[in-house]
Structures are given as structure tokens and as C-alpha cells.
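Page 47, continued from p. 46.
Same chain as before, 109 aa.
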Amino acid sequence: MLLTYSALAAFLNRTFVCVAGGELIVRHGPLPLFGNRARVKTSLVRHLDYVVTDAGDAIEWKISADLRDGTKLKLLKDHSNTAAGLFIVEQLEDHLNIRDRHLTGVVPR
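Result:
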């Protein structure tokens, strides 16, 4: 049953990223899954990190937010085109007026 539900969620769900009302919101739906939401006040976001991991036959990208209190909040991850992840991070940085920074293991713009 859980496997069927997970397969349906993978097929039907879409990811929504929204910046509104002073918040950055990431959610997946219409089928709810454990850990499928991220919500943070935009004033708490210091930087966004975009990391690409290449495990031979599979490439995965992740976007996380470094918060002003030193914590890191996972926002998105996917196995699709890495250009899509880079586009999302660029749009969020522009909208939130966050300057890009260069870190080891993090893909710069």
C-alpha cells in the first residue's frame, strides 16, 4: 500500500515554490508526503546553496537555505536536469536580493 501511494505521489505531485508575504514557501502536492514542506521568513535567509552530486550514472541537485541562526534548511532536491535547479536558485536569489557566494562543492552561477 505504501509503495503504491509513493508511486502515485511521484507521478501526480508537483513542486510549488513561492515567495509571498515575507515568506519563502516550498510544498509538494496534491498528495501529502512526510517532510514535503519548507516555510521560512525571507528575512532569516542568509544564502542559498545549490549542490550537484554526480554518482556515476545518477546526478542529483539540491537547494538549501543557510539561515541567519546558522541552521540549514533543505528546500528542494531532484534527479532531473541540473539547469532547472540552477534556474530556480538564480530566480530566488534575484527575488530575495541575495548575492551569490562561491563555496567548495557548491555550484556557482
